[in-house]
Amino acid sequence: MHSAKPQHTPSRTVSTVLVSAFLALGIAWTAPAVAASDAASGQYSINSPIKVEERTSPSAKVCVEGDTCGGGAAAAPAAAAAEPAAPATRDPQTVFNTGCAACHASGAAGAPKPGDKAAWAPRIAEGKDTLHQHALHGFKGMPARGLCGSGCTDEEIMGVVDWMVSQSE
Questions:
Q1: 3-21: b or e for each residue (b if 16 or more CB lie within 10 Å)?
Q2: Is 0.70 topped by the overall pTM?
């Protein structure tokens, strides 16, 4: 019986080397750019390490009487006086891009896309109050407050709902 061995011709060897070289160059060229884009700004992916850290970092620190808590009791009134006023409400499109777009831009998990009149019509028929309640408290596959969590005010979430409805009427 004759066993077939792969033939290694010069042209096959050259093509194998070229393909390997192009693959290596492609990986070497794109990997640092992808890593740098998230590291530098964190704005390209909602799941980038920077965005995850922002969402999961503690929003407060518990201090027990007697602990210094970063400056002692005397520092607390000074810190309170130095705190800026509450930030102004962000425009709906900015809020949409920070969290809502993760599902609503692509239609993931059945989320209606802004501008999709057919998908929004039955929802709009339920009324804005119902839509606001669904956005704030969750409904079916949508978690309460979407992906914004405590990072958005109620007014901002309702503003995004109103904006998406206005794009879809």
A1: eeeeeeeeeeeeeeeeeee
A2: no
